[in-house]
Write a structure and sequence with these properties.
Elements lengths: L2 H25 L8 H17 L23 E3 L8 E3 L2 H14 L5 E7 L2 E8 L2 E7 L5 E3 L2 H4 L15 E9 L2 H13 L8 H9 L4 H5 L4 E9 L7 H11 L8 E3 L2 H14 L7 E8 L2 H7 L9 E5 L5 E12 L5 E12 L2 E7 L3 H7 L6 E7 L3 E7 L24 E2 L8 E2 L5 H11 L12 H9 L14 H5 L6 H14 L4 H7 L7 H11 L2 H6 L2 H5 L6 H12 L1 H12 L19 E5 L7 H10 L3 E3 L8 E4 L5 H9 L3 E2 L1 H9 L1
Parallel strand pairs: 2-11, 19-20, 19-21, 21-22
Antiparallel strand pairs: 1-6, 3-9, 3-10, 4-5, 4-7, 7-8, 10-11, 12-13, 12-15, 13-14, 15-16, 17-18
Length: 663
């Protein structure tokens, strides 16, 4: 190997070690020693080297944690070691009963007490120290293979510090409270349904078919059990030390107890610490420490006899609902919020609680002036669980949502089949900031250096009042703002200029039209070719496009029928923004055909194959139906191939496909 290549390889391995080290300090120990910018610089240097020297890239590199693989479904795999659940207890009396019963038969028994994490249980399998599989608990006998998503979790070691042969561990994937809060804020801003609690959010994130989405959710893991190893330790405490030495993040504060009173005291200590933790715990787990005693005790058909889970009671408070105010999100969704007499609950003072939508209010018959019972969903999000009816004033009246937007006073709309009520005025001030942030995002116009804080600064300073204003900004105007120098201003101007050639696909996505995401925008761009053709299309014409249903078609027509949208588009085009599709037709050999791509193709990525379909006049669909002309199939195809075969739809391979378009 040439000297230069050896030096490059050494640098790549060094970068991998540094990134893993700093990642552990940040995510596991909460004590970073470098700034985020320094970490990002190391990360980007490794990305560049892996791109330039792909043969030297490590498949277990930290860069692989960003995700990006998309699965059609998750394969079900049988657990080598069954993942039992624990029987639950709810009182100190039951703690004494459990411990003393075991002590009467095994006087030498000792017990560990550890936190019960509120997340999703998984098993991780390693061969010779390298992660080979991650499974959900499932029914305890079999689970789903979510390996690609597991790899995106920073606290899951891809490679262990030693460990020969096969090692299987069990852990709990969870979402930290700050990650949960950020996720729900993002959902609310985009008019999407929020998650009820961090556990639901963690479970939903780990089962995303697109691992890139999972990577963005900030999941973490605690490993709490050594399921299988060539040389099993004698006790649970010893196994936790072994897990820690291998590089796993294990729970802190595990207590070894000899008596029932010590166990009860340790459980109380965990309960007292819950409010100060960065994650949710909903109880404590009590286990016999010695593995030999566990083996002799055995299990019932449903749970082991040597462990129980103590569940903490939920904290509930009463307070008065003094008003209901309405907030307006980026997509115009009106969200009611309860204004409360401040009350202390689960470690903090609560003054507000989300009411979600009018259906939620009606189901619970919540009225202004009511005394309400309150709890924190997942110990974080305050929610009203019921009304204290006997304390209601006789003058209380049912609440109704406003028929005008509280921000712009324009009429609001509730579409059939939806719970959300929306302001459909694009000029609504409450929607401006979030709509521009969406416009510049990666999935839309992809304008670098324009983060949320910069956009807010532009709006507050009066530099922009619409997305089109971005293209009329001058360097000197930007440079005059606080914390914005000449170089930063120039970088922003350059990024805005570059985005002018993003193409119709990204422009349509960036406009924030209801129901029109990346996929639908691509289909529209491929079918119509330019922005004016989309603007003038009828509902019937739009519905003829794959991925565009009646609701989406009506939303497009409604959006472009407004004067605001027309002015916005014309100003964008006048500034030099391209309104034409970047995918220029190469032929019409697939005209009128609807094609579904499934499996792994020999040379083409799925996105490349779908782009070729559109470029040759066809429509690339994500699902198989009777309208599908044929299925382009590679290896490891799943349910789409099965459905195509059941419907008698022709299946072709990549070679057939390339011959078809080349002809």
């Amino acid at each position: 190997m040439p000297k230069e290549i050896k030096e490059i390889e050494r640098e790549m391995r060094s970068l991998e070690e540094q990134l893993e080290y700093h990642s552990r300090l940040y995510y596991e120990l909460d004590s970073p020693i470098i700034q985020d910018e320094e970490y990002d610089a190391l990360f980007q240097r490794l990305v560049v080297l892996e791109r330039e020297y792909p043969r030297l890239a490590n498949p277990n590199s930290p860069t692989q944690r960003v995700g990006g693989k998309v699965a059609e479904r998750f394969e079900t795999v049988r657990h080598e070691v069954p993942m039992d659940s624990f029987d639950k207890i709810f009182s100190e009396e039951e703690i004494y009963e459990f411990v003393n019963k075991i002590k009467s038969e095994y006087p030498e028994a000792e017990f560990t007490v550890e936190k019960k994490f509120d997340g999703l249980s998984v098993s991780l399998e390693y061969n010779d120290g390298v992660l080979v599989r991650g499974l959900t608990r499932g029914d305890g006998i079999s689970g789903e293979d979510v390996t690609e998503n597991i790899k995106t979790i920073n606290t899951v070691p891809i490679k262990l510090n030693g460990g020969k042969g096969k090692i299987i561990v069990r852990g709990e994937v969870y979402m930290p409270r700050r990650s949960f809060a950020r996720l729900n804020e993002k959902c609310e801003a985009n008019g999407k349904k929020t998650f009820a609690n961090p556990r639901n959010a963690a479970a939903g994130s780990l089962r995303q078919l697109d691992s890139k989405i999972c990577a963005e959710r900030g999941l973490q893991i605690f490993v709490f059990n050594l399921q299988l190893a060539d040389d099993m330790p004698e006790s649970h405490i010893e196994s936790l030390e072994r897990l820690k030495s291998l590089g796993f993040t294990v729970s802190d504060g595990v207590t070894l107890c000899k008596t029932a009173s010590e166990v009860a005291k340790a459980v109380r200590a965990i309960g007292d610490s819950r409010k100060s933790l960065a994650y949710d715990t909903d109880g404590a787990v009590i286990k016999v420490d010695k593995l030999s005693i566990r083996e002799r005790m055995g299990s019932t058909s449903a749970a082991p006899r040597w462990a129980v889970a103590y569940k903490f009671p939920a904290e509930i408070a009463e307070t008065q609902l003094i008003d209901i105010d309405i907030q307006v999100g980026r997509t115009g969704v009106l969200t009611p919020r309860a204004v409360l007499t401040p009350v202390h609950l689960a470690g903090s003072t609560v003054s507000y609680a989300t009411l979600h939508n009018i259906d939620f209010i009606r189901e619970r018959d919540v009225r202004i002036g009511d005394t309400v019972r309150l709890r924190k969903a997942g110990d974080i999000i305050p929610e009203i669980i019921s009304v204290v009816a006997e304390k209601r004033s006789p003058n209380a009246v049912p609440f109704e949502m406003p028929d005008k937007c509280p921000s712009c006073s324009e009429s609001v709309l509730r579409e059939d089949g939806e719970v959300a009520i929306r302001c459909i005025n694009p000029d609504c001030p409450a929607q401006l900031s979030r709509s521009i942030i969406h416009f510049v995002s990666r999935s839309a116009m992809d304008i670098d250096n324009l983060g949320e804080s910069v956009v807010e600064q532009f709006i507050v300073s009066g530099l922009i009042k619409s997305a089109a204003d971005l293209y009329y900004l001058k360097k000197e105007d930007i440079a005059s703002l606080d914390r914005m120098g000449e170089k930063s201003a120039q970088n922003i101007v350059d990024a805005i200029e570059k985005s002018k050639q993003a193409g119709l696909e990204r422009l349509l996505c960036g406009l924030g039209i209801r129901h029109i995401g990346e996929k639908a925008a691509q289909s529209l761009a491929a079918r119509f070719g330019d922005i004016h053709s989309v603007m003038n299309a009828t509902v019937e014409e739009l519905c003829s496009v794959d991925d565009i249903g009646n609701d989406s078609a009506e939303a497009v027509v409604r959006f472009f029928s407004g004067d605001h949208a027309k002015r916005l588009v014309e100003r964008l085009l006048a500034a030099g923004v391209s309104g034409e599709s970047k995918e220029k037709p190469l032929g019409n050999s697939l005209e009128g055909k609807t094609i579904v791509v499934t499996g792994t193709l020999p040379t083409l990525k799925r996105q490349e194959a779908e782009a070729l379909i559109r470029l040759h006049g066809g429509s690339a669909s994500g699902s198989v139906s009777k309208k599908t002309s044929f299925v382009l199939c590679g290896t490891d195809a799943g349910s789409k191939l099965t459905k195509a075969q059941s419907l008698g739809i022709p299946v072709i391979n990549e070679e057939d496909f390339l011959a078809m378009i080349n002809n």
